[in-house]
Structure formats: C-alpha cells, structure tokens
Amino acid sequence: MRLTPEQINILQEELCAELVNILMQEWHYSMHEALGVLYNSDTFALIQDVGTGLYYQSAGYVYSYLEEELNTGKVA
Predict the structure, then answer these.
(1) What is the mean pLDDT of residues 14-23?
(2) Cβ atoms of 59 and 15 closer than 8 Å
(3) CA-CA-CA-CA torsion sign (34, 28, 16, 42)
(4) In 27-52, which ranges are continuous DSSP H helix?
(5) Model confidence pLDDT, tens digit, residues 1-18
(6) Is the pLDDT of residue 75 over 90?
(7) Distance CA 55, CA 62 (A)
C-alpha cells in the first residue's frame, strides 16, 4: 500500500509533535525552544526526506538520532 503525500505529511507532523514533547520533558526546553532545536536539526531534514523512511518510525527511535545529534553535533 502506498501512502499519499497527505498521509506522509500527517505522519511527519505527528512524529515532530512527539519529538517536541520529548525535548520538552528530557531537556526542559520551552515549546518555542524545542521547536527551534528540532526544526534546525539534521534529524528534522532526514524526517522530511521521504526516502529515509524515518517518518514512519517510532518517536523513540528517531529521538535516538536527535539525541545523538544534540550530544555530538552529528547524526548517528
């Protein structure tokens, strides 16, 4: 089954919302800060690249990429 662009967009948005919540809980960022961190990350670019398939992975799995990037400056 192929997903439509709209379905992919919904999955990407839901994943990003979950990642923002994790950043707020784990790093004690405000929502504004968490959004800035996520949207300016290489991990966000990977989520937006449909070819990576990250948009349909769990938030915990994708957060491991983001956490590595935040800790080292590089995506795992």
Answers:
(1) 98
(2) yes
(3) positive
(4) 31-39, 42-48
(5) 799 999 999 999 999 999
(6) no
(7) 9
**CA separation for the pair 5, 7 (Å, rounded):** 5
Phi-psi group of 61: left, alpha or beta (phi > 0 → left; psi -120 to 50 → alpha; rest → beta): alpha
Runs of H (alpha helix) within 1-76: 5-26, 31-39, 42-48, 59-72
For 48-63, write each residue's pLDDT tens digit: 999 999 999 999 999 9
Hey, what are 17's tokens?
């919302």
Burial of 68 (C-beta count, 10 Å sphere; 0-12/13-18/19+): middle
Other Cβ atoms closer than 10 A to 54: 20
Q: Give me 56's structure tokens.
A: 């349909």
Q: Which amino acid is at 8?
A: I
The answer to whether 67 and 60 are in contact (CB under 8 A) is no
